[in-house]
Amino acid sequence: MNNEYLEYKGDVTLKKEEFTQYKQRVLDLDNRQINILGETYTIYVYGPKKDSRFNSNAELYGFCSPNCHQIHILNRLDDIRKCPLYPEEWYINDAHEVLRHEIIHAFLNESGLDSQSHTPGGPWSNDEEIIDWLAIQSPKIFKVFEELDILNFASGTRNAYYGGE
User: Fold this and answer.
1) Whole-angstrom Cα distance, residue 59 to residue 45?
2) Do 27 and 45 meet the contact criterion of CB atoms below 8 Å apart?
3) Helix (H) and strand (E) counts for the chain?
4) Which one of 10, 13, 48, 82 is separated from 68 by 20 to 30 angstroms, measured CA to CA?
């Protein structure tokens, strides 16, 4: 096996150089500020030992704190060496998916849907299944939008007024 590739269970995955670049892209998100419907949110990227909320809940990979305007995600890229069950692509895609998931929560919260969408089981806008579906499918949806060139808003339209271009 060529040493420039990472190998798990006999499958060639990313080149080491590509993985290092992807990992750095995830780490570069730490302390990044983004605009969510006029509110500035800060993204924090944690290692598993840096935040006790991640240590106490093995299923928690990220969370959105709407009151503090913060998004926290867990950097699990270092876990690859400890548990090489998945290829590197899985961990990279997972970090991106978790961040998309939490950004969707932030958009729904800033839209007022966290408190205005109550159903007997709780607000539908907090339904993790819906949020996961959107986080997983959004790249595919936006790819179709890009292919059709329908992501831009015409000036003077309702969408342009509410934050479009």
Assistant:
1) 16
2) yes
3) 6, 6
4) 48
The count of residues in the chain is 165
| Span 99-118, pLDDT tens digits | 999 999 999 999 888 776 66
Condensed to tens digits (0 to 9), the pLDDT of residues 2-43 reads 555 444 434 445 566 777 777 788 888 899 999 999 999 999
Count of domains for the chain? 1
Are 62 and 128 in contact, with CB atoms under 8 Å apart?
no
Residue-by-residue DSSP string for 57-88:
-TT--EEEETTTTEEEEE--GGGGTT-TTS-H
Q: In angstroms, rounded to a whole number, what is the distance separating the alpha carbons of residues 103 and 43?
A: 10
Task: With beta carbons less than 8 A apart as the criterion, state whether 163 and 37 touch.
Answer: yes
Look at the alpha carbons of 95, 147, 35, 112 in this order and tell me if their dihedral is positive or negative.
negative
Cα gap 38→24, rounded to integer Å = 28
Boundaries of domain holding 96 = 5-161
Paired residues of 54 in beta bridges: none
Residue 145 has pLDDT above 80, yes or no: yes
